[in-house]
């Protein structure tokens, strides 16, 4: 198994005339189509991920900090910007609308600020919050939709991440002590809690991923611990745990076609894992044996960057994050120097 570049997207035309060359800093895949949106400066550009053709460009007035395709709207991206506004960007009409404005006009964040964004396919809303603050806000994803509302969670603890279940009406809120609460997205009542005993220390989820068919949740802790939870019963159980490294886990993705899990740590280390199945249902599963490193070659960054007309970069850039298409065999690597390339695993 190896990594190979499909396309290097041509973003050189963006930002011409400015004093410094702009670089891409965020990307997100369409949930079902081979489309990718890339944020560069104040623009969001949509590409065909297979051919590399540019399809549409929207200038939203400020750089994107976090974004994702809306699962309830066919062709729109929801983005939180450096001016702390949340905008919906419709690629069909090439129009944008403000969904939320900050209470203080002076508020400002950067592309390195941790902002947590969670979208659900079951409601036209987005949940968001800032790292280590103690509140979550929900707002509609269409103009004139649900007004911004602060959700009062039952715990007054710093929040480290948010995620929505892809099939069920559940919002996961991760707290700084490693505890994760599952709330109903309609009533905000607590469904269950994911928490380990006191012998295993966690400091808060840095990333979530979901199995496409099984009720498995993968959690990457900021302590460098990778966990898997089975939430198919009323009493969820931890089914897998391993130490990825000493660095926080910044990104987790499930590769559906390969049935593998990819983690990216804060220092740029990328690792691929396979999950063990229960061979004998009469014997209990050992969580320590659930994850096993997969036999896939390490990413050769110079080779990846030089394929398909790209240019080698020295010193070698650090991998910042990985975006994976939920259905297709495509992934986007974003580097710390803000180069972007698209990769296919065979």
TrEMBL record:
Transmembrane segments: none
InterPro entries per UniProt: ATG16 (IPR045160), WD40/YVTN_repeat-like_dom_sf (IPR015943), WD40_repeat_dom_sf (IPR036322), WD40_rpt (IPR001680)
A Pfam family annotated for this UniProt entry: WD40
Lineage top rank: taxon: Eukaryota
Matching SUPFAM superfamilies: WD40 repeat-like
Record-linked SMART domains: WD40
Annotated GO biological process: autophagosome assembly
PANTHER family assigned: AUTOPHAGY PROTEIN 16-LIKE, TRANSDUCIN_WD40 REPEAT-LIKE SUPERFAMILY PROTEIN
Protein name from the UniProt record: Uncharacterized protein
Organism: Linum tenue
């Amino acid at each position: 198994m190896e990594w190979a570049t499909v396309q290097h997207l041509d973003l050189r035309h963006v930002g011409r005339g400015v004093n410094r060359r702009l670089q891409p800093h965020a990307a997100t895949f369409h949930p079902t189509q081979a489309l990718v949106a890339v944020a560069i400066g104040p623009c969001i550009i949509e590409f065909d991920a297979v051919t590399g053709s540019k399809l549409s460009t929207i200038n939203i007035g400020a750089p994107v900090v976090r974004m994702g395709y809306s699962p309830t709207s066919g062709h729109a991206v929801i983005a939180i910007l450096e001016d702390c506004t949340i905008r919906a960007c419709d690629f069909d009409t090439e129009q944008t609308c403000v969904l939320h404005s900050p209470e203080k006009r002076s508020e400002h964040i950067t592309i390195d600020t941790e902002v947590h964004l969670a979208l659900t396919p079951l409601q036209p809303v987005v949940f968001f919050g800032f790292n280590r603050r103690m509140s979550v806000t929900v707002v509609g994803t269409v103009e004139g939709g649900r007004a911004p509302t602060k959700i009062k969670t039952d715990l007054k603890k710093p929040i480290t991440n948010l995620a929505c279940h892809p099939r069920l009406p559940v919002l996961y809120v991760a707290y700084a002590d490693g505890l994760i609460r599952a709330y109903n997205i309609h009533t905000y009542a607590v469904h269950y809690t994911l928490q380990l005993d006191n012998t295993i220390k966690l400091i808060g989820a840095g990333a979530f991923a979901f199995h496409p068919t099984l009720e498995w949740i993968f959690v990457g802790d900021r302590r460098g611990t990778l966990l898997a939870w089975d939430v198919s019963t009323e009493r969820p159980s931890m089914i897998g745990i391993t130490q990825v490294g000493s660095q926080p886990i910044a990104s987790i993705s499930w590769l559906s076609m390969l049935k593998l899990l990819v983690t990216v740590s804060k220092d740029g280390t990328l690792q691929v894992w396979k999950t063990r199945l229960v061979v004998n249902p009469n014997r209990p599963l050992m969580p320590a044996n659930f994850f096993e490193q997969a036999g896939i070659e390490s990413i050769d960054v110079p080779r990846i960057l030089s394929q398909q007309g790209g240019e080698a970069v020295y010193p070698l850039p650090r991998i910042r994050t990985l975006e994976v298409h939920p259905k297709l065999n495509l992934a986007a690597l974003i580097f710390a120097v803000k180069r972007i390339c698209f990769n296919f695993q065979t």
